[in-house]
Amino acid sequence: MAKDYDPGLEGASMDFDGRMSYGDYLRLDAILDSQKPLSTAHDEMLFIVQHQTSELWMRLAIHELTAARAALRNDSIQPAMKMLARVSRILEQLNSAWDVLRTMTPSEYTHFRNQLGQSSGFQSWQYRLIEFVLGNRNPAMLRPHGHRPDIVARLEAELGEPSLYDEALRLLARHGITVPASVLERDVSRTHSADPGVIAAWRSIYQAPERYWELYEVAEKLVDLEDYFRRWRFNHVTTVERIIGFKRGTGGTAGISYLKRMLEVELFPELWHVRTEL
User: Which of 198, 239, 255 is CA-nearest to residue 105?
Assistant: First the structure.
């Protein structure tokens, strides 16, 4: 019989009395003590863990998106590209999470759905912040957070900032690409609408990528990001329809019909429309 391996003999730290351990650094006790099912249903733990981990990934996405926006504002294009690529990978992780949740059947969900009360993913302020950063800005979506003035203040502050896409368009203008003044000087608290002048700006880049390589890379990183974001939304719709059909959402939304409307939202519209003109 093989002798038990002792990592301590090779120098691995084995005594953490008074020293920083893995669990200490990650605060695992607090994290693992945060799953509090309200029913005896086996599948409620899956539901809680899936949503909690999604919120953690969203926290990282916000960290990367806001840093990427600041980098674009400062003409630090390559660091911004690294951050945006990371956000696309984060969205890939979020998409994979739906695959796990879809293992729950409608009958299993009914065993604890009533315990959710009026709580709903619709009320995720981090998701709302991501949408605001990306440019989908609807002030009406502040209302579900009215009971938390601190969260409302953070979301309102974001509405006062240019979105990631606004900063990308300002970057184009600083690099000699003609972008309409009406777009550059618009009210950034509102969602940007497709503009023919912006389509022309992106077209000039796509028609001469060797001349505008960095801006061309910005365009494609933004397209990648929205591609993954659209998949996230689509997988959300599919998962909800698979589990609850066309019932109303726990938060009072119309459920599937509301989510399907969200599939029509374009974050960076001209980057999609320009493809028709190339």
Answer: 239
pTM of the predicted model as reported, rounded to 2 decimal places: 0.90
Does the pLDDT value for residue 254 go beyond 70?
no
Name the residue among 120, 110, 98 with its Cα closest to residue 42. Answer: 110
Q: What kind and span of H or E run contains 272?
A: helix 269-277
Helix (H, G, I), strand (E, B) or coil at 105: coil
Ordered structural domains, the chain, with CATH: 42-245+252-277 (1.20.58.480)
For range 129-141, the mean pLDDT: 94
How many Cβ atoms sit within 10 Å of the Cβ of residue 233? 17
Q: Which token pair is 152? A: 């409302």
Answer for the pair 164, 170: CB distance below 8 angstroms, yes or no. no
pLDDT band at 116 (very low <50, low <70, confident <90, very high): confident
164-194 per-position pLDDT tens digit: 999 999 999 999 999 999 999 999 999 999 9
DSSP string, 109-170: HHTTGGGGTT--GGG-HHHHHHHHHHT---GGGGGGGTT-HHHHHHHHHHHTSPPHHHHHHH
